[in-house]
Amino acid sequence: MDVGHYILDGNADAVEFCPHESCSDVLAASTYVLQEGDEPRRSGSISLFNVNADAGLLELIQTVETAGIFDVKWSPRLSSDSSLPLLAQADADGYVRIYSLQCRGSDGSQIKENCLSEVCGQMISSSMCLYIDWNPSGNAMAVGRSDGSVSVVSLDESRLSIRHDWKAHDFEVWAASFDIQQPTLVYTGSDDCKFACWDIRDDPSKLVFQNSKAHKMGVCCVAKSPGDSNTLLTGSYDEHLRIWDVRSMSKPVVESSICLGGGIWRIKHHPSRTGRALAACMHNGFAIVRFESDKIEVVETYNKHGSLAYGADWQRGTSPNLPVIATCSFYDRLLRVWTPKQ
């Protein structure tokens, strides 16, 4: 069932529901626009929406103009000094920016306008920041960059500082994700077709493993299961979603994996149902997959977008049997909110 849709002001590449109960109806959508000319410029924006699926509501709250954005992520923890949700941005100018969200009035009223404000920002590199992921404690972020490097950036009292910085791959790092259960480990995926794991207790970070054979094209996303500490999923331009057991990383659990018919740009695990994930499949819309042990299958597809399927996320706090999903597509600038059939 479609809840609503919205045409954004730029090419849509990421959507993220706020994970905190008090603001679970807040959805952030980011954009990236390359303005060509003698002096090319990459611009972008973050648009905030209020989502109420029961009422069929998708309401624009605020739009923040910024640099061209490649990725945004909400912190899993509230701000330590203000107890507000934080949103991190990785952008084409090589910056990481942090915003805070005032999602309720002092009287408990609904969301107010101009509720997203920048807390801090720092240039991480002269190369572009392509991906960002918070550690479970919400005090550091892993950042994948276009020059093949990875940075771990700490957040302390509204200040950003680079804690680690190392050359991880030969080409663009499209994924740099913390291990949820073991946050001293960072998984990376790159255009060089390599999938790797790093131990950031060492400086420079120690290579734990690297697989260069499983993926036939660039690795776009790495997603550790929040409900199963041994299971990890990867997505690639080669259109295959692969299941891995972290206790044996020489090859995927299912050697043939599953082909989703389009390059897999994002994978999002269901927030409460272990063994279910949402995938953005670029040239083939979106898919919900169910997996267990060495079995994986597609249970539903969604093909109401007209261009590259990039952003996807589940809303927290909704019924596991009636989840709400947000998806976005790039060139048609389209954001959609919908509920799956099962």
Outline of the structure:
This protein is mostly beta strands.
Describe the fold and architecture.
- This protein has strands at 2-7, 11-17, 26-35, 41-52, 57-67, 69-74, 86-91, 95-101, 116-123, 129-134, 140-145, 149-156, 159-167, 173-178, 185-190, 195-199, 206-211, 219-224, 231-236, 240-245, 258-259, 266-269, 276-280, 286-292, 295-302, 309-314, 325-329, 334-338.
- It is built from no helices and 28 strands.
- It has a domain at 1-123: Methylamine Dehydrogenase, Chain H (7 Propeller).
- The model has no long low-confidence stretch (mean pLDDT 93).
- The N and C termini lie close together (11 Å).
Provide tags for this entry:
mainly beta, four-stranded antiparallel β-sheet, Methylamine Dehydrogenase, Chain H, globular, single chain, 28 strands, about 350 residues
Sheet with most strands: strand arrangement:
1-28-27-26
Element order, helices and strands? EEEEEEEEEEEEEEEEEEEEEEEEEEEE
Please write the CATH class name of the domain at 1-123. Answer: Mainly Beta
CATH topology name of the domain at 1-123, in short, is Methylamine Dehydrogenase, Chain H
Tally of DSSP β-strands? 28
> If helices are DSSP runs of H or I spanning 4 or more residues, what is the number of helices?
0
Decide which structural class fits the backbone: mainly beta
Give me the CATH architecture of the domain at 1-123, please: 7 Propeller
> Main sheet?
4 strands, antiparallel
- Relevant CATH superfamily of the domain at 1-123: YVTN repeat-like/Quinoprotein amine dehydrogenase
Query: What share of the residues does DSSP label as strand, in percent?
Result: over 45%
List low-pLDDT spans: none
Supply Rg: 19 Å
The separation of the N and C termini measures: 11 Å
The backbone outline, from C-alpha atoms, is globular
Helix content: under 10%
